[in-house]
Amino acid sequence: MKKNLLFIVLTILSLSASAQPKETVAILGDSYSTFEGYNTPDTMEMWYFQKQDLRRTDVSNVRQTWWWQVVNDGGYKLGINNSWSGSTICNTSYNDRDESYKSFLRRMDALGTPDIILIFGGTNDAWAHAPLGNYQYDNIRMADKFYFRPALAFLLSHMLDRYPNTRLYFISNSDLDKDYTASIHTICKHYSIPVIQLHDISKQNGHPDIAGMKAIATQVLAAIR
User: Which of 3-7, 65-69, 84-88, 212-216 is least confident?
Assistant: First the structure.
C-alpha cells in the first residue's frame, strides 16, 4: 500500500514538473544574432543566411546559431529575436553617421513579453569608434544618446521599467576595445544587470563561426541557468 502511494505521489510530481510552462527568451542584438527568416521584423539586415557562403562564414543552419542552441539546450521557448546587422547601441554608427533608425535604443520596446531578455550589443559601437561620452545616469537628453555610455545607461534603465519581472542579461563580446568593455561592466553593475563576458570565441570575418557559436551558447547557458 505504501509503495503504491509513493508511486502515485512521484507520478503526480513528475506530471506537475513536466506541465510547467517553458520560459520565453527574447534577443536584442546585432549581426551576431541574425539568421535569415528568423528575425522580427524580417526587413532588418542580416549576416547569416541559409545559403552557404564559406568565404563569409561556415554557419548556414539556424541550429548552428548561439541563440537557437541556448533556447533548445536550455529547454526555453523562443520569443522575438530583434537583431539588426551593423546596429549600434547608441545612435552614432560608422563614419559618424546618424543611424538611430536601427539602433538598440530604437528597437528596445519591440521584444514582446518574455521571461528572459538577452542583450547582445556594443560590438559595432566599439568597431565604429562611437564616442564614449561620460558616465551619466540621469537627465539623459536626445543629444546624449549619440554617445555610448549615456545611451547604454538609458537603454538599461528603460528596459528595467519596460519589462518588469523579466530577467535581463547583457552579453559582452570578446576582443573589444577595453574602454567599451569596461564601460559595459560599469554601467551594468550600476543597474545590477549581470554581464556575460565572452572569451575564447572562434570567429571568421569578425563573426562567430560554428565553433564560436557553440562557445557563446555554452557560456550563456552557464550564466542564465
Answer: 3-7
- Pairing assessment for the beta strands 203-204 and 77-83 based on DSSP bridges: unpaired
Residues linked to residue 92 through DSSP beta bridges, in sequence order: 98
Lookup: cell for 125 = 559601437
| Phi-psi label, residue 140: left if phi above 0, alpha if psi -120 to 50, beta otherwise | beta
> From CA 118, how far away is CA 33, in angstroms rounded?
10
pLDDT digit string (tens) for 144-203? Answer: 999 999 999 999 999 999 999 999 999 999 999 999 999 999 999 999 999 999 999 999
Question: Which of 128, 119, 122, 131 is closest to 156 using CA atoms?
Answer: 119
Is 158 strand, coil or helix? helix
Nearest to 38, CA basis, from 9, 58, 63:
63
C-alpha span between 165 and 161 (Å, rounded) = 10
The CA–CA distances, whole Å, from 176 to 15, 189, 198 equal 46, 19, 10
Q: Which three cell numbers stand for residue 210?
A: 560554428
Is residue 88 within 8 Å of residue 130, measured between CB atoms?
yes
User: At 10, is the secondary structure helix, strand, or coil?
Assistant: helix
Identity (one letter) of the amino acid at 56?
Answer: R
Angle formed by the axes of helices 178-190 and 148-162, nearest 10°: 30
Query: Residue 205 corresponds to which cell in the numbers above?
Result: 570575418
User: What residue has cell string 540621469?
Assistant: 138
Q: Tell me how far apart the alpha carbons of residues 8 and 206 are, in angstroms, rounded to a whole number.
A: 55
φ and ψ at residue 211, rounded to 5 degrees? -65, -40
In sequence order, the β-bridge partners of residue 181 are none
